[in-house]
Amino acid sequence: MHQVIQKKTALVLAGTENVIPYIGTFLISLNKIHPNFTNDIIVFYDTISSIYSEKLKKIPNIVLKKYETPFENIDEFDDVVLNNFTPMVFAKYECIRLLNDYSCIIWMDYDMVVASDISELLKPVDSGLRLIITPSISDSFLPNQNKVVMEEYKELNGIHGSVMVFYDTLKRREEIYWWCIDKTNELKSTLRLPEQAVFSLMINEFAIAVYPIDFNLYSKHPESKKTYYDKYVKIWHCYGPRKFWNGVKCKVFDECYDIWKSL
After folding, report:
1. What average pLDDT does this structure show over 92-114?
2. How far is Cα 117 from Cα 119, in angstroms, rounded to an integer?
3. Which residue, among 95, 113, 137, has the nearest Cα to 11 in the 3D structure?
4. Are the C-beta atoms of 111 and 239 separated by less than 8 Å?
5. Residues 6+ apart with CB under 8 A from 138
6. Greatest Cα-to-Cα distance within the chain, rounded to the nearest angstrom
7. What is the CATH number of the domain that holds 155?
8. Residues near 30 by Cβ (< 8 Å), separated by ≥ 6?
9. Total structural domains in the chain?
C-alpha cells in the first residue's frame, strides 16, 4: 500500500524591503491569536537586509523566497499602477502554483493585523477559492478606460484582493496561472488595481463558484464608520494611503509593532 503524503498549508505575504517591518508586525498579530497557524509562512521579497532577515527568522515557520516577476516590461503599466504599487503585487499569482506543494494557500496583504480567530480559512471548499466578492469590477480599472473595458466586463462581479484563500481543489491551476499572466499583459494600460482586476476577470472566465469572505469581518478599516460588525472584526485593514504607521490608530498594531522592534 502506498503511503499518502499529506500536503502542508502556507500563509503568503509579499513586499519590498521598506514594508518588511509591517509584514513582521502582521505575523506577530497572527501568532498571538494562532501560534503555528500554518506549516509554513512564505514571505516573497525583492531585496532584504540581513537585519530584517534575521528578525523574520525569529518568527516560527518562516520561509523567505526571492520574487522573480514574470513580466518583462513593467514600465509599460500605467503610471497609476507604477506610482501606487510595486511588481511585488503580482506575487499573488504565485499562490496558484504553490498549490502543487500545499493543500491550502492563504494570501494576506501586509497593511493588516489579525484581531481574532481566522481558523475557518483553513477549511477547504469544493471550488478551491475563498475571496471577498464585490458588486462591480469597475473600480479595478482606470476611469478613462472604463468605456472601452467595461463594454465587455461591466456586468461582472469583482473581487477584493486583500485576503485570498486557494485550495488544491482548484481545477486547471496551471492554465489559470498563465491566463492571469497573459491577461495582465493584455490589459496593462487599463489597470488601476492590477492583480485585483485580473483575478476578477479570472473567476468569471473559468466560472468558479467562489466561497465568499465577509469584507466587514476580514478587511475592515479602523477609521471606517463604526458598525455592529466592529466587535466581531477578524482583520483590521488600512487600505488606501492612510496606514497604521502614518497616523491610523490601532491598539493591535501598536502592541505588535513594539514587539517587532524589540526582536
Report:
1. 98
2. 6
3. 95
4. yes
5. 146, 150, 154, 158
6. 61
7. 3.90.550.10
8. 11, 37, 114, 118
9. 1
Question: Which residues, other chains included, contact 128 with Cβ-Cβ below 8 Å and sequence gap of 6+?
Answer: 166, 167, 168, 169, 170, 171, 208
Q: Which residue has the cell 506543494?
A: 101
DSSP string for residues in 185-213: HHHTTTBSSHHHHHHHHHHHHTT--PEE-
Whether residue 1 lies inside any domain: the answer is no
Query: Does the structure show a pLDDT above 60 at 146?
Result: no
Residue 196 to residue 158: CA distance in whole angstroms: 8
Q: Which pLDDT score, from 0 to 100, does residue 150 have? A: 63
Check pLDDT > 80 for residue 144: no
pLDDT computed for residue 148 by the predictor: 60
**Residue 22: inside a domain, yes or no?**
yes
Q: How far is CA 28 from CA 66, 99, 199, 213, 260, in A?
A: 22, 25, 28, 23, 7
Over 80: is that where the pLDDT of 7 sits?
yes
Distance between CA atoms of 112 and 243, rounded to whole angstroms?
A: 9
CA 52 to chain centre: 21
Quick one: which of 15, 74, 11 has its CA closest to 48? 15
Angle at 143 between CA 142 and CA 146, to 5 degrees: 90
pTM check: above 0.90: yes
In which domain, by residue range, is 57 found? Answer: 8-262
Residues across the chain: 263
Contact residues for 203 (Cβ-Cβ < 8 A; gap 6+): 129, 131, 157, 159, 210
Cα angle 179, 196, 202 (rounded to 5 degrees) comes to 35
pLDDT band at 73 (very low <50, low <70, confident <90, very high): confident
- Helix, strand, coil share of the chain (percent; to 5): 45, 20, 35
pLDDT at 38 over 60: yes
